[in-house]
TrEMBL record:
InterPro entries: UPF0210. Pfam families: DUF711. It comes from Butyrivibrio hungatei. HAMAP family: UPF0210. Homodimer. Belongs to the UPF0210 family. PANTHER family: UPF0210 PROTEIN MJ1665 (PTHR37560:SF1), UPF0210 PROTEIN SPR0218 (PTHR37560). Coiled coil: none annotated. This is UPF0210 protein bhn_I1519.
Length: 454
């Protein structure tokens, strides 16, 4: 049983080290909203979300005030809309109407983002899946808080290369559709391999079909806390280093557990999971790259970086699972470029490249995240980068993802400003050699041999 006394020792973490509960995410099933009539479907969706989430923001704010714990975001995830809209949507414009409904109700209840404008196509695409995917550029250009994710691969099914190729095109079209805002739409679009059903973090959150009708998932973050803890053991051996990270992750997770239990009780919604992810922000001292520097590399990207990140990710998870019986989601360390000042510094220093970031994704929580690339990058090149990242996830039985932002009208050496938690990013160079013949083959890359475990 958790009590408030456990939170007392975290006061300094909160006040000085950027510890926060990054998000309370309310997952809502929309399967009971399905109708063959589009207007009725949109009404059902609006009403279900509003009735379920109308007290989410006020409850989160109340918990934050009472316990002195910053709760940065309140969010909603819903059933993948391709599943919900299949009976009613006959064109991509029909799906856009649902996206606008999601946007309207999310703004009405006051959440920061709503995720689940999604399709799960790791083995094949239904017509509804294809229509939703084709609608993404318009949907993200005409909404403000809707987030989209597409799962194109898994360890069990392989990689749907037709979907990968299509997503290369969709990313470019989304960039074009939102070019007046530095292609911001792409910051709300994630392509996954092995996407989890219970991820509370955007832009990839959706409410999986294996989940309850509604669920509370909480994401906790504390890169600054871990960095400060490691400063006290400089020069110590790896055993001491690992123990320090584990103990710190334990304390951070207990804060999330308290918030999750309180939110669950007050909203009358079952508690799902705690996602202990070291998710950085642009704030100074809230950086995963700075943790890697404290472990011993001059900049993120230097030799030893991948090993240091692997160590960090593993110890964070070990500490977290001892603090809560229900650690899930992504849990580990995120390495988004634009959201981490240390990563930005490493790129500007010439230490961190796209290829090194790809190597780091073999051992981190997610993948190539919030990376700005030249606006003239070909859609086939984007598809090739997606395929590479999906292969890492498929072979290593882990979640990987791609959130690339080809910034229309800008090139290497320029900077793009997204604002808020999304931060800013230097535009990184992309390998110019062609992969056209590879991504245009079509079909599916088979699942690896170690997927057959029945």
């Amino acid at each position: 049983m958790i009590n408030v006394n456990e939170v007392v020792e975290t006061n300094e973490m909160i006040e000085k080290e950027n510890l926060d509960v990054r998000t309370i995410t309310l997952g809502i099933s929309l399967l009971d909203c399905i109708s063959s009539d589009l207007d009725q479907l949109c009404k059902n969706i609006y009403d279900k979300i509003y009735d379920t989430a109308k007290d989410l923001v006020s409850t989160g704010n109340q918990i934050s005030r009472e316990f002195g714990i910053p709760i940065v975001n309140k969010r909603i995830s819903v059933t993948p809309i391709a599943l919900v809209g299949g009976a009613a949507c006959k064109t991509s414009s029909d799906f856009v109407q649902i996206a606008r409904t999601l946007d309207d109700v999310a703004k009405k209840v006051g959440v920061n983002f709503i995720g689940g404008y999604s399709a799960l196509v790791s083995k094949g695409m239904t017509e509804a899946d294809r229509l939703l995917i084709e609608s993404i550029p318009e949907a993200l250009a005409t909404t403000d808080v809707v987030c989209s994710s597409i799962n194109v691969g898994s360890t069990k099914t392989g990689i749907n290369m037709d979907a990968v190729r299509l997503m290369g095109t969709i990313v470019k079209k989304t960039a074009e559709a939102t070019k007046e805002n530095d292609s911001l739409g792409c910051a709300k679009l994630v392509i996954f391999c092995n996407a989890p059903d219970d991820n509370p973090f955007m832009a990839g959150a959706f409410h999986g079909v294996t989940e309850s009708d509604k669920i509370i998932n909480v994401g906790v973050s504390g890169p600054g806390v871990v960095k400060t803890a490691l400063e006290s053991v400089r020069g110590e051996n790896f055993e001491v280093l690992c123990e320090t990270i584990k103990k710190t992750a334990f304390k951070v997770t207990r804060v999330g557990q308290l918030v999750a239990q309180e939110a669950s009780k007050r909203l009358g919604v079952p508690f799902g999971i705690i996602d202990l992810s070291l998710a950085p922000t642009p704030a100074i001292g809230d950086s995963v790259a700075d943790i890697l520097h404290e472990i011993g590399v001059e900049h993120a990207g230097a030799p030893g970086t991948t090993a240091a990140l692997a160590l960090l990710n593993d110890q964070v998870k070990k500490g977290g699972v001892m603090a809560s019986s229900y650690v899930g989601g992504l849990s580990g360390a995120f390495i988004p470029v634009s959201e981490d000042q240390g990563m930005i510094n490493a790129v500007n220093a010439g230490c961190l490249t796209l290829e090194k970031l790809e190597a780091m994704t073999c051992v981190c929580s997610v993948g190539l995240d919030m990376i700005a690339v030249p606006g003239d990058t070909k859609d086939t090149t984007i598809a090739g980068i997606i395929a590479d990242e999906m292969a890492i996830g498929m072979i290593n039985q882990k979640t990987t993802a791609v959130r690339l932002i080809p910034v229309i009208g800008k090139g290497v050496g320029e900077t793009v400003e997204f604002g808020g938690l999304l931060g800013y990013a230097p535009i990184m160079p992309v390998n110019q050699f062609s992969c056209d013949n590879f991504v245009n083959r079509g079909g599916r890359i088979p699942a690896p041999v170690h997927s057959f475990k029945n």
